[in-house]
Amino acid sequence: MSSKAQKMELNDGHSIPVLGFGTFVTEEHLKKKSMESTKIAIDVGFRHIDCSHFYQNEEELGQAIRSKIEDGTVKREDIFYTSKLWSTCHRPELVRPSLESSLRKLKLDYVDLYLIHFPVSLKPGDSLLPQDEHGNLILDTVDLCATWEAMEKCKDAGLAKSIGVSNFNRRLLEMILKKPGLRYKPVCNQVECHPYLNQSKLLDYCKMNDIILVAYGALGTQRYKNCTNEDTPVLLEDPVLCAMAKKYKRTPALIALRYQLQRGIVVLAKSFNEEHIRENMQVFDFELASDHMKILDGLDRNLRYFPADIFKAHPNFPFCDEY
């Protein structure tokens, strides 16, 4: 079954493809690779592309998307493109200019989804991670409800079809949902989610409030320097996951992706390897039995590959609460 047929409706009436292509890069030399990989992803059937200002490769992704439109593979409306507002632009007056800057790089008229990338606010400026002379992050104090109002205006202006959040916990979601005069609920909350961190309580809360959970890091992690816990176990080497992969004659990666889809989660798969990109599309070709889903639920160990400890001093840091 093609991914094009697999969508979930958002609470604002738009719909999101359930399988997305992740494009996070940490090094300059990988930007071109992310462009080539995105072209391959579109060729094999991916229609949901996930990026962010923070990744610093939106220009390359815009080229990839436009080249696939120009060669007739897709039309603009076939592509669901997500961008994200970075933490240095939380002040309400910076929200729209930040989105417009992304659109200029992409050479697109709108994004399908715009997210607040991380709830911790940082000092505005050119540096993505502003630091003082001691190497500490320079934090900012911004009312996220005011940031959200500026996001709502971007939706009104047609610059973003839908708006949502990323890395929010229940407390922060409630702050937005209970905001006086709320006009648009977040359509989704994009969070780290995989069998070692299955986010079951947050998932239940989001479902209750008609907010879709989007999973990043669904295959564990590639152990990015300075981002991740490098000494954590490798998810795709988990013996239970590997045994299940053998049973279904699939890869552990496909089992991990399928697990999320069957929980009603939109899942992002990132790879710069053509064979893996093609293989990830096979997630629609099989189904996990309910008893196997329960076994996978049992792998949860509340393990974060992306603990984001550098943001811990901020009152909006999301990962100290239970969920």
From TrEMBL:
Ranges annotated as spanning the membrane: none
Record bears the keyword Oxidoreductase: yes
SUPFAM superfamilies named among the record's database cross-references: NAD(P)-linked oxidoreductase
Keyword annotations of the record: NADP, Oxidoreductase
Residue span(s) of domain NADP-dependent oxidoreductase: 19-300
UniProt cross-references to Gene3D superfamilies, sorted A to Z: NADP-dependent oxidoreductase domain (3.20.20.100)
InterPro entries associated with the record: AKR, AKR1C, Aldo/ket_reductase_CS, NAD(P)_OxRdtase_dom_sf, NADP_OxRdtase_dom
Alphabetical list of PROSITE patterns matching this protein: ALDOKETO_REDUCTASE_1, ALDOKETO_REDUCTASE_2
PANTHER family recorded: ALDO/KETO REDUCTASE (PTHR11732)
Family: Belongs to the aldo/keto reductase family.
Protein known as: Aldo-keto reductase family 1 member C18 isoform X1
Organism of origin: Microtus ochrogaster
Gene: LOC101986470
